[in-house]
């Protein structure tokens, strides 16, 4: 037995090493990015001036209203996801789904990208549903957001084209660097080479562990999307999508009126300026960081800089004060909702075990023949 254990030891070391490295990349990189961006964010900033702006100029009533709107966006997201889960035969109380959404954002503050896996596991465990089925619906939920952000980005480029062109003309170095990256042959050669390599590995090693896991993931994603096409309540699903993103946009719009100069930006340039900042802040959430802290403020600062020439006094300190206030209050709300969520989940586990209609009705063997 000793010989057998010793012979297996070398094969275990690479696997353990790979696990350690994957965990370091998953949980170590986001905090490094967050800290690094925050360090650059505050470098050269007059902290006393920023504190003065927040203390004397911020109208926190608008911030409070924006936070209420953000809670509604979470509720609408839960209502949208419930339609997908019901179509898959996973009958889940709306309150439980709302808690899973609150918990997702709270977990992402600590461990980015783990929140989605947590809510998948929570719903699958509570409703005794197949993890892959719930995961597919969650992937669909997130990819629908990606498509929405893409469409909003195109809209922002169309409606804000004059401001974007004006900003690039005022900052020729930025325009030159941007065009150099886009026109770089090395960029397109690298993208093409990576795509061809992925295709070659996919065909050469169809039964490898990575390819098999990827096939399973794509199958779950497809199942999640397929159910949207055949489920009842498609119109309501689209309505909830519009309400979710309408809440997000309205939330930021309201925040603009919390500070006099950002209110001037909204008043002079209209919803277009808010849309530009909104799209940039939405894109910043793709950066792996703790709850978007760091990238979000950078995005708002960059968006406001496009309109700074038309609003005297809109300095970097002022834009940073705005960004930090919005992000700070939103983060505080997510922490409070997270605490409430995990307290209620603990109570639910003790007193409300899944029975009857709250349990999943998906067949144990397969989810391919789920009826509408």
From TrEMBL:
<feature type="transmembrane region" description="Helical">
    <location>
        <begin position="62"/>
        <end position="80"/>
    </location>
</feature>
<feature type="transmembrane region" description="Helical">
    <location>
        <begin position="298"/>
        <end position="315"/>
    </location>
</feature>
<dbReference type="GO" id="GO:0005886">
    <property type="term" value="C:plasma membrane"/>
</dbReference>
<feature type="region of interest" description="Disordered">
    <location>
        <begin position="353"/>
        <end position="372"/>
    </location>
</feature>
<dbReference type="InterPro" id="IPR022791">
    <property type="entry name" value="L-PG_synthase/AglD"/>
</dbReference>
<keyword id="KW-1003">Cell membrane</keyword>
<feature type="transmembrane region" description="Helical">
    <location>
        <begin position="265"/>
        <end position="286"/>
    </location>
</feature>
<protein>
    <submittedName>
        <fullName>UPF0104 family protein</fullName>
    </submittedName>
</protein>
<feature type="transmembrane region" description="Helical">
    <location>
        <begin position="235"/>
        <end position="259"/>
    </location>
</feature>
<keyword id="KW-1133">Transmembrane helix</keyword>
<feature type="transmembrane region" description="Helical">
    <location>
        <begin position="92"/>
        <end position="111"/>
    </location>
</feature>
<dbReference type="Pfam" id="PF03706">
    <property type="entry name" value="LPG_synthase_TM"/>
</dbReference>
<feature type="transmembrane region" description="Helical">
    <location>
        <begin position="24"/>
        <end position="42"/>
    </location>
</feature>
<keyword id="KW-0812">Transmembrane</keyword>
<feature type="transmembrane region" description="Helical">
    <location>
        <begin position="180"/>
        <end position="202"/>
    </location>
</feature>
<feature type="transmembrane region" description="Helical">
    <location>
        <begin position="147"/>
        <end position="168"/>
    </location>
</feature>
<keyword id="KW-0472">Membrane</keyword>
<feature type="transmembrane region" description="Helical">
    <location>
        <begin position="321"/>
        <end position="345"/>
    </location>
</feature>
